[in-house]
């Protein structure tokens, strides 16, 4: 089951709503560097791959914009380790 992910550029975050729960990946953009600061998926909807989907969309967005990625969020750092196709984005 996939849920539509919205890029809220002004708020510097990616969001999706699952079973009325807001799930968020937050970042800070400086020059051409995206620092992923936080990924939050409420426990009630955890374990469904939502954080992975948010992270993948964020990384794909970074790639398409030619942004470097700083995974300050521990989840994003682990995701990148598990998906070496994104390692080239990190600084």
From TrEMBL:
Residues 6-91 form the N-acetyltransferase domain. Pfam families: Acetyltransf_CG (PF14542). PROSITE patterns: GNAT_YJDJ. Signal peptide: none annotated. InterPro entries: Acyl_CoA_acyltransferase, Gcn5-rel_NAT, GNAT_YJDJ. This is N-acetyltransferase. It comes from Orrella daihaiensis. The lineage of its organism: Bacteria, Pseudomonadati, Pseudomonadota, Betaproteobacteria, Burkholderiales.
């Amino acid at each position: 089951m996939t849920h539509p992910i919205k890029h809220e550029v002004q708020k510097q975050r990616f969001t999706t709503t699952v079973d009325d729960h807001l799930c968020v990946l937050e970042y800070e953009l400086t020059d051409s560097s995206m620092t992923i600061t936080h990924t939050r998926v409420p426990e009630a909807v955890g374990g469904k791959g939502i954080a992975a989907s948010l992270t993948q969309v964020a990384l794909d967005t970074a790639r398409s914009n030619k942004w470097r990625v700083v995974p300050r969020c521990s989840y994003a750092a682990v995701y990148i380790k598990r998906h070496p196709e994104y390692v080239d984005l990190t600084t």
